[in-house]
Predict the 3D structure of the following.
Amino acid sequence: MVGMDTAQRLRLYYEACIPMGLLVLGMFHYGFPPFDDTTLTLVPGLLMCIIITYYLYDRLSSNTDDTHVLPGTQTSMYRRRADPGRMWGGMLVPLVMFALNIDDASDEKHGVGLGACGAWVLSVAMAWTFTVRLSGLSLGCSWALCVAGILALALAGPWERGNTGVHVCLVAMSAIAQHMGTQFVVRKLPRSFTLGEAAAIAQGICLALLDLAAQLFTRKQGLVDPQHMCVLVLEAAGVGTALIVCVLYMAPRHSQGVSVKDTVWMCVAAGAGAGVTTSIIAFVSGANPMRWIVLAVLGSQTGRIVLIYWFMLMTCATAIYAWCAQTPTSSSKLMLHIKRKSYHILAVLLFAPAYIATPLVLHIGFTIALCVFVCAESVRVLCLNGWGTQMTHFMRRFTDARDVGLVVTAHFYLLVGCAVPVWLDNTRGCVEAALAGVLALGVADTCASLVGLRFGSIKWPATVKTVEGTGAFIASLVVAVECMRWAKGFGYDTASGYDEMPGYGLVGSFVVCVAMGVLEALTDQNDNLVIPLTMYAAVKTLIHSDTISWVSVVVVAAMLAVPLIPHSTLIQLHSVL
C-alpha cells in the first residue's frame, strides 16, 4: 500500500488470513457450502473464493490505494486513524452465515423466512457487489460484474426450483439495499465507523429485514416454537425501534430543559413502536406477542430467578457507577481502562449465568436491551428533554479515541458483540458459540487490556498491542471456555444433538482461542464487533476438528506462506496482473 512498510502490510495480511482461512476450511470440508446438493451451491462458493483471492492480493500489494471509499461518501466520514477494513466488509457476514448453515436446518424444515441457506446466498451477493464496487474497476466493468454475480446466484444458487423471478429480485434487492444502507450509515453517523464496520452493520440489518419480509409473505400461523418466535420478536422489535427513532427525529428541537412537547413526542414514539412490533408478531405467528413473552420469561421458576438476579446485580452496579460519576475524573490511562473494562466484567456476570440457566430469557433480554440502547442514544443525540448533555457527559467518561463520531459506539459494540452469537445460536445450547462474545470480550479482552497496559513491554510489529496482553487473552479465554463447557455439561444440550458431534475438545478450543488472540492483536477494527463473530464462526467451523480436509489445510498453509515470497516477485506479479 502507498507509503506502507513491510510490517504494516504483513499485519494486515495475517489479519485477513484468519477469517479467510476459516471460510476455506469450512468450504473445503462441508462443500460450497454444507448442503445436500453441492452442485447447486457451487456458485456462491466460487464467488467467495474470488473475493478471498482479491483481498489476499489487495493486502499484499504495495501499490493499492487505501483511500478508496464507497461511492457517494467521503474519506472524512469514516472513523479516523484506523484501517478502512474493506476486507471485513466483504468477509465478515458471509463467514458468519456460512457457519450458521453448518447445523441449522430449522427454518428450512418449517419453510419460514429466508432460512440459513437463503441468508448465505444473499450475504455472498452483498459481499460480491461491495467488493466489486471498491475494486477500482471502471464503472461499466463494475456494473457488469455485479449483474453477472447477481444473475449467477439467482439462477444457480441453492434455491427451490420454479421461482427464478423471485430469486433474481431478492438477490438484486439485497445487493442494492446493502449499498444504500452502508451509504446511509456512513453519511448519517459520520466518523463513527470504518468502511468495513459500516458495511457489516448494513449487511446484517438488510438480512434481518429481508428475512422479516419473507416471513410476512410465508407466514405460518400457529408456529410458535421458541426458535422461530425469538427471531421474529428480534426482527419485529428492530422495525418498531426504527419507527421510534424516526418519530423522535421529527420532534421539534428545544435548547435546554425539560419540555412537555418532548415528553409527548417520546410517548407517541414509544406507542407507535410498540404497536408496530406487536402487530407484526401477531400477523406472522397468530400468537399474542405480549402473552408469549411474559410466559417465556416468567412462566418458569428459572426465568423468575434470572430476573431477580439481574435486578439485584444492576442495582449494585448502578450504585457503584453513580458513586464513580461523583468522583473526580482521573487522567490515568490505567484508571480509564479499568472503568471501561468494568462494563465487560458486568457483562460476564449478567449474561453467562443467564445463558447457563435459560438461553431463551437471555435471547429476549438482549432484544429488549438493544431497543433500549438505540432509543436512549437517539434521545442523547437529539438532546430531547434536556437529557442529551447529561448523558453525553456521563458516557464520555468511558470512551476512548474511537468514540469521536456522532454516535458513541463503545456500549453498542459491547452489547452487539455479546448478543449476536446468542441470537445466532438461538437457544440450541452450544455454549462456546453462543457465549463467544461474552467470553472473548468480558474475560479475554479485559485480561489482555489490563495485563498489556500494566506489564506489556514487547509490542507486536506495526501495532500498539503487546505480546504479554495477547498471551493473557489466549490463556484467559481457554480457561473461560472450558469453565463454561463444564458448567453447561461440557457445552452441549443433549436435546439439540450437539452431544453427538465429535472432535471438539481441548485442542480445538486452544486453536480457536489462539486464532482469536492473534486477531485481537492485529486488527484495527473495533474488536468488540469482529472478534465475537469470528469466534462464533470458528467454533462452528472447527467443531469437527478431527475430520478437517487435508486439502483445506494445505490451502491455508499456502496462504500463510505467501508473504515469504520475495517482495520483488510480488511487484512483478502485480505489474503483470
Remarks:
- The chain has 23 helices and no strands.
